[in-house]
Amino acid sequence: MESLSFLKLAEIAGQFGLPGLLLVLWYLNDRSRDKTLQNYRTDMQKALSNYQDDMAEIRRMYENNVKLVEAYESLSSDLKDVVIMNTQAWTRANDSITQNQFCPQV
Fold it and tell me: Within a 13 Å sphere around the CA of 11, how many CA atoms are in the beta-carbon half?
């Protein structure tokens, strides 16, 4: 809002009277309110844009987590197969040792 000195206000009141002064003050106040509302809209648009960007990043993080879980599931399946084959090999080794078929002194 533009600064109005007391002399300017007195001059306006002298020319237009009290209704003219009230109209001028109302007009200046309305301009100030419009400017404040425009600043508010701009700030809210920025905040909304930032929020949308953050939500898009969170969505990407969830999608990446799904990919990570799928990769981990594949890895755990492969590891299960390795453990099963290792157990079978040690079972055969244990059976061979227990039956003592390969000992040259038997």
Answer: 5
Q: pLDDT by residue for the chain (106 residues), tens digit each?
A: 456 677 776 777 778 777 877 887 888 899 999 999 999 999 999 999 999 999 999 999 999 999 999 999 888 888 888 899 999 999 988 887 888 756 666 5
* CA distance readout (Å), 46 to 43, 53, 81: 5, 11, 53
Question: How open is the CA angle 5-11-16, to the nearest 5 degrees?
Answer: 125
Residue pointed to by tokens 């990919």:
67
Which is it for the CA torsion 87, 92, 93, 98, positive or negative?
A: positive
**Does residue 9 contact residue 39 with C-beta atoms inside 8 Å?**
no
